[in-house]
Specification:
CATH topology of one domain: Serine Threonine Protein Phosphatase 5, Tetratricopeptide repeat
Distance between the termini: 34 Å
Strand order of the largest sheet: 2-1-3
Oligomer: single chain
Radius of gyration: 33 Å
Helix content: over 70%
Structural class: mainly alpha
CATH architecture of one domain: Alpha Horseshoe
Shape: elongated
CATH superfamily of one domain: Tetratricopeptide repeat domain
Number of helices: 19
Largest sheet: 3 strands, antiparallel
Strand content: under 5%
CATH class of one domain: Mainly Alpha
Number of strands: 3
Length: about 400
């Protein structure tokens, strides 16, 4: 539960407590005014009312104690206090909602689900409480790994309240985790704020196309790749896989144009393009690679990722001395990039059986490597949360933000 919500609840509860004590004081004043000695026989009724107020005061004190444990992140103690509150006041559904949340947060999923289900059995349950209970049950199922049941819970909420943002967010997360791309796409297309999420919808459309191609439905795959590009012409993922689709149909000029478009959108992702050249025929691959690097070297040669990809190509092409010189300059930057380590290893393997001149380069690389490459970091980092990954991902595995992964 967010701290702001806890503080709001605490403030509201404090006002209730003040009101109760004020009411108790007024009640005794009322007794003195309305019950003179001639009506002393009605005092037990007043005493009973006072006792009820005292019980409510004790209830609030227990509630405050449980709340303090929540703020202090002492879940077990908080659960114990809220159980007491629930036993005293069995009619308040909100208390049971909070109790179920505490059970879930402490990992007691069966108890959390049971508490929330019991709320739904109550007659005349207000609609807002029913929706909140379904939402909590959905979170319970999700936390317990019962993803199909969690989906059904959030789907039922959206059926009754199509604009519920919390249920929509949770359901989208579940669909994407389960790789239910078409359901995720339909969900976001139905979102009133979908105009602000064109890049996300383009990614989901691309994923539907990928799944269709894997299943052998090429007509459907092409339809969704083109639809993704129509939605967002800057979707790199769509351009790459559209190029792959064209390459499988042997439409080479169109394939290269699509991959080239993906590269120009973000040259830092050069590896995603150059790795695809290996799917071309051997003669064509060598020509395409050479032309690609010569065409872009002047403009992008100073960019780290392009430079590393170029060094890799130089090694493969047998231009070991040129590759070594460039690699030594990269090593002086002490970047700690794992890709540098891979290139050094590859180059050293090539240099083992080379000429005496290249043996000097071998010795230089070996002697400088450990003094410059002090650490190895992952190649990509999320711009939003800082999470690092080895391979390019269009959605951050930690914060689930799309298009936030960039070259470190």
């Amino acid at each position: 539960m967010p701290l702001s919500t806890l503080l709001s609840v605490a403030l509201l509860s404090l006002l209730c407590l003040i009101f109760l004590f004020w009411g108790l004081k007024r009640l005794f004043a009322f007794r003195c005014y309305c019950f003179p000695k001639s009506k002393i026989n009605k005092i037990p009724q007043v005493v009973k009312a006072a006792e009820e107020l005292t019980e409510k005061s004790a209830l609030l004190r227990t509630y405050f104690k449980g709340l303090s444990y929540v703020i202090a992140n002492e879940t077990d103690k908080a659960v114990a206090e809220f159980v007491k509150v629930a036993r005293i006041d069995t009619t308040t559904a909100e208390i049971y909602l909070a109790l179920g949340q505490l059970f879930r947060n402490s990992g007691e999923m069966e108890r959390a689900i049971r508490v929330h289900r019991d709320i739904l059995l109550r007659p005349n349950l207000p609609d807002d409480v029913r929706r909140q209970t379904f939402f909590e049950i959905g979170l319970d199922y999700k936390r317990a790994g019962l993803f199909d049941r969690a989906c059904r819970a959030f789907e039922e909420i959206l059926a009754r309240d199509p604009e519920n943002p919390g249920a929509r967010k949770e359901l989208s997360s579940l669909y994407i985790s389960l790789r239910e791309w078409e359901k995720a796409l339909a969900l976001h297309k139905a979102d009133p704020s979908s105009e602000n999420k064109i890049n996300l919808i383009a990614h989901l459309t691309t994923e539907v196309g990928k799944a269709a191609e894997i299943s052998g439905d090429r007509k459907k795959a092409l339809k969704f790749f083109l639809e993704a590009l129509a939605l967002d012409d800057n979707c790199i993922d769509a351009w790459l896989h559209y190029g792959d689709f064209l390459q499988s149909d042997n439409q080479i000029p169109e394939t290269l144009a699509a991959w080239e478009k993906a590269f120009t959108l973000n040259p830092d992702f050069v590896g995603l393009v150059t790795s695809r050249f290996s799917t071309l025929s051997e003669n064509l691959r060598d020509t395409v690679e050479a032309e690609f690097f010569m065409r872009h070297l002047e403009e992008y040669g100073s960019k780290k990722k392009f430079n590393l990809a170029y060094i890799g190509w130089l090694i493969k092409a047998g231009r070991l001395h040129d590759a070594g010189q460039r690699l030594e300059r990269v090593m002086r930057e002490k970047s700690g990039d794992a890709e540098v380590f891979s290139l050094v290893r590859h180059l050293l393997q090539k240099l083992r059986s080379s000429s005496e001149t290249e043996h000097k380069l071998y010795d230089s690389l070996v002697s400088n490597f450990f003094s410059t490459q002090l650490r190895f970091e992952k190649a990509y980092r999320c711009r939003k949360c800082g999470f690092q990954v080895d391979e390019m991902a269009w959605q951050c595995p930690r914060c689930a933000t799309w298009d936030s992964i960039a070259v470190r």
